[in-house]
Amino acid sequence: MKVLSFNFDKICIERFLPSLKDLKINNKLDIKEIVEAQADFLNTQDKVLGIKFSFFLEYGPDVAKIELNGMVALAVPESTSEEVLDKWKTKEIPSEFKTSLFNFLFRKVGLRALELEEEFGLPPHIPFPVFKKTEDSK
What we know:
Helix content: 25-40%
Order of helices and strands: EEEEHH
Shape: elongated
Largest sheet: 4 strands, antiparallel
Number of helices: 2
Structural class: alpha+beta
Strand content: 35-45%
Strand order of the largest sheet: 1-4-3-2
Radius of gyration: 19 Å
């Protein structure tokens, strides 16, 4: 799978309450649509899939929310394209393709969400490594 393009078409963040007490963070990634797209510039037998997605982060109870919507265009082998489009008729995605797609999308939307969280004074939705001082063994 080769990424041909990636873009956001909606970035929305709202903060409702200043308090971060008893904070719970939930996230959700939805695939809204998968369609075959055209790309005349490809010189290979690959097919292009256009995938619309929505990513939600909810800071509860009623603290804040982040919504990121966008589209990614992927070049995939024809056999993969046929399998994905066939499964998508029942709103399913083949597991190997889904794993690669979700890993890519979580990296892209996760980075943008981290920037927004920083700007709005929200804690990061993913844990960062924490270094602790250790006692000398002497």
